[in-house]
Amino acid sequence: SSFAGRCTAATEGGSVKRTLVRRQVLKLVAGMALSPWPLPAASAQADRVQQTVAALLAATEEGSILQIDLEDFRDALNLCGRSPVSFTVTDHDADKVLDACRSALALMPRDKVRAAVVVCSGNGKSFQLSHCAEVFRVVQHAMDESACFVFGVVIDPTLVDAMSVAWLAGAPDG
Question: What is the pTM of this model?
Fold first, then answer.
């Protein structure tokens, strides 16, 4: 077989595997009873959870600045259990985003988090990698050192001069 033929077969095989793992991720998310954190008004709950899941999945796509491996994402979701909490904040001021993250994490019991998936996204002058690094440090500091921590960074052209952070955290059931 030719080199080009082997490359095509490998690419197609990787694509099939990626599709299967993505389906597993979506099935896991569909089986979760996600709760936004801190708890918002009931009417906004479903929308915020969907935004969080969409933001997290965006970081598994090719072209992410810091791409999350889909299998790592799936494994972290498994560790989050069936009732993880989700959090999303977007603002034009990165300091306000960081403060909102700190406030939300301060309310979460450290020993109740065994896994977290965190994604920073943004576009423009308010979105700097140093801000993302600070978000990751804040989340990591709020978690037990044995917890599984997966993070990603994405350019989001729909955000104009803003930064957004989405995270999902939890512990296995039982």
Answer: 0.73
**If you ran DSSP here, which 8-state letter would residue 114 be given?**
S
Q: Which candidate, 62, 56, 74, places its Cα nearest to that of 152?
A: 56
Give the span between the Cα atoms of 35 and 59, in whole angstroms: 21
Find the DSSP H helices in the chain: 3-30, 42-58, 70-79, 94-106, 129-142
Bridge partner list, 162: 123
What mean pLDDT value characterizes the chain? 76
Could you tell me if 119 and 152 are in contact, meaning their C-beta atoms sit under 8 angstroms apart? yes
Distance separating alpha carbons of residues 166 and 174, to the nearest angstrom: 26
Work out the average pLDDT over 137-154: 87
State how far the alpha carbon of 67 is from the alpha carbons of 63, 120, 126, 166, in Å.
7, 11, 21, 15
d(CA 116, CA 122): 20
